Request: fold
Amino acid sequence: MGAELKNYLHEQHYFRFRLGVAALVVFCLFALLAFRFSYLQIKQYNHYQTLAENNRISLVPIIPNRGLILDKNGVILAHNFFAYTLEITPAKVKNLEETIAEISSLVEISALDRKRFKKFREQSHNFESIPIRTHLNEIEAAKFAVNHYRFPGVEIKSRLFRHYPLGKLGSHMIGYIGRINDRDLKNLEESGDLSNYKGSDHIGKSGLEQYYEKQLHGTTGFQQVEIDADGHAVRVLSSTPPIPGDNIILAADSKLQEIAETAFGTHRGALVAINPKTGEVLSYVSQPTFDPNLFVDGIDSESWKALNESLDKPLINRPLRGVYPPGSTFKPFVAMAGLEAGKRAPPYSIHDPGFFTLPGKSHRYRDWKPSGHGTVDIQKAITISCDTFFYGLAMEMGIESLTSFVRHFGFGRKSGIDIDNVSGKSENGGLLPTPEWKQRRFKQPWFPGETVIVGIGQGYTLVTPLQLAQATAILANNGVAMKPRMVSQIESAQSGKKQMTPPVIQDRVELHPDNVEIVKRGMIDVTLPGGTAASVGANAGYSIAAKTGTAQVIGIKQNEKYNESGMNERHLDHALFIAYAPAEDPTIALAVIVENGRHGGSTAGPIARKVMDYYLLGKVPAVEAAKDNKQLTGNAATTATPEEELHD
Amino acid sequence: MISKLLQHLFKHIDAFLMACLFFALLTSLFVLYSASGQNLDRIYAQAVNMGVALSVLWVVANISPQKLERVALILYVLGVLLLIAVALFGSISHGARRWLNIGFTQIQPSELMRIAMPMMLAWFFASREGKPSAVNFIVAGLLLAVPVALIMKQPDLGTSLLIASSGFYVLFLAGLSWKFLLGAMVSLLGFMPIFWSMLHDYQRKRIEILFDPTQDPLGAGYHTIQAIIAIGSGGATGKGWLNGTQTQLDFLPERTTDFIFAVFSEEFGFLGNMLLLTLFSIIIMRGLMIASQAQSTFSRLLAGSITLNFFSYAFVNMGMVSGILPVVGVPLPLISYGGTSLVTLCLGFGILMSIHTHKNLVAN
Reply:
């Protein structure tokens, strides 16, 4: 007992000693603060007093001009112009509703403006100024300026606006900018760019505007200004000029883009054209499209609803994020895989009875031509799109070796194109199915029949239009994959110096020249009489290598016939078409998908032809033809043969 | 009759400490009125916060330290679980994941840790009968490191360091050996250059700006530069209430919360600062006195840590606003606008009062 008490007292004693040490530290640190205060407030008082008197010296950021986006010929796709805005800082206004009502007696404020203001107000802090009206004209601006004194907390500002002069044209490629939100702020903070955005209200949200944000934005400058007691600038003391953003120059041509988009008429779909030697994207179509100007200062909810809920899905970036079964356009790549694996090399041929069966099974995998194609070798199989031939080839190769080979053509992986939105909706990598994938996804084993239909690009296989175009370009370039890119040059706005963005080799697959020749020959014959797209090649003046395809939107049961006339328009097959030209020395490779367009040769093919005609020959399609491509002209070049109408 | 009732009601309230708190809170309302641009709504809102916080104080003061000791472990485990939940499902605001949505409201588990951490460690040493063995200190160090690491990951460097220090105070008061302290300090200093060499250029730049705000006058340095001008121009006696030009002309950012001390300094000057330092010192001395008179290991360690933790908040805030410490986003205790930190603070003072007023019962 005694020892315990002694121990307790000892402990308490030691504890008090430690407390004393802590108290000493507290005292010393508080003394340090007191010393600091005396230094600032007594010794340096005059210095800080002067600074505070003149504080009135304020740093004002100068926002750099955002870089332009130009097409290859210098046509402006995105630029800036000066305009006035009326902005309110909610924290400085006593009664917001009343103030807005009073302002509207001077300057027109629409219901739309009010809604937008309300939306911004919910998203921003009280001390941020929020636009109530944008694009004021000179008279409106002057009218408000005279009455400015009545509205504390309301400012008229002149600032740059982003504008896309071509409107809907190429909007999925260009993208748009929008007001900086919390997520953007967070990203800027993480990348350490936040202070460069002092004063900036906008940031690239999608497309090129987003991908090239760093280059387009430029470096913010600042001015030291002397301000009076009311906070108005009186005199500029010093100034660091901003560095304007770089201009980016595309490989695409806006005229070609217009021809391509017009060629789609009222159809939904996508087109990507690539220069196979450089990877430059020549045209990038996603139909229907939208007007990016709507987004710049916040889209109103009605327009947003109309765009977002439209059945045509205009906001989806189809080349990048739309996935489709490749259908028969997959066959040249399957053929390439077979030949490189040493299978089906000519003169090997089959006799096609119009269907394929697995050994010991009764299920018939039907050919599109019920009566069969007769004797078919691999080159002819491509030309006439013989399903039976590819069913058997896929079966013999096996799913693993087939998918691992065609992966070299960019299927099943992202292309890394320079409009991919890394932080938001990113590129879709498509799907090359494998047994492991199926086990993971559906917890089911792989069935042999699933391999059979991959041979004709059906089943689980999914590609994006961009992947399909890239695969065609890789084939055209004899197995060398160039990384696809939109921007060919970056121009410094200050020095005017242009810097080329160099071509990048992404992948290279060794292909035997003889095999390449067989596949290419088969594809060239597609656009010659007897091929599935003979009409597309007619009277072209240059040789086209191509492949047609259709992708089923809804499944058709065994022993059921595909009845086109009785179907809902949105359940009709998708039409696909891939091509490159001139076949001997390709400078353009493309893929076209027309949603519910039925046959590759008759709807997608003519669009491709118009694009190639302009790109290679400078030929502009006739106006009537451009107006409605559904109603085909009498021109032999675009009239489908009955054979093509049957299938791809 | 009424006086008896009142006496019973306030049996567990330490009048001296309470008077100091009242004085500080009153000051807070005056400074806030000036800082918010004479916005009475702000004053009402903060008065409500104070009402809530003082109620919490009263409730906690009426709970005996023995009961607190029994819930220490539960609170700690709950705190760590909530921090893990934040790391997994927390909502992100301003680039950090600090808040947890629990249906009807959002909570910030790191606030709970400010109290749970010293309670846990005090309980741990009390249950080990205060023996300063090396194993006990290693276990305590681990108990300290887990929540600190979780909060640092949010990321919330300021709070994690302050919680680490609240735990460290317990270790120190429990008798952590001087040799170890010295060794830790030396190795920390020795590790600095290695740590520095491992950083990227942009990371070094950020740290440099933290210590020298003039390098980035538009960005991170702006707050500090303006705050120092405000303090310095306050002079010996200040510019007078509602007359601070820096404050009233919008030069001072965050002036109702983290930078409220600059407002106070500008308007009340060096004299005001000294009075505020004195008030804080009196509160701290009272707290240390309560700790030294406490009768159980748990009570004395907890009281000491809570008091010293109050000191660290005050010191770090005034240090950062006056430019001798980097800006880490810590409010000035009792003065800054905001409910959460005030409630936590009053919870701590409630514990102090409980320890002080339940003392005689223990003796019996």
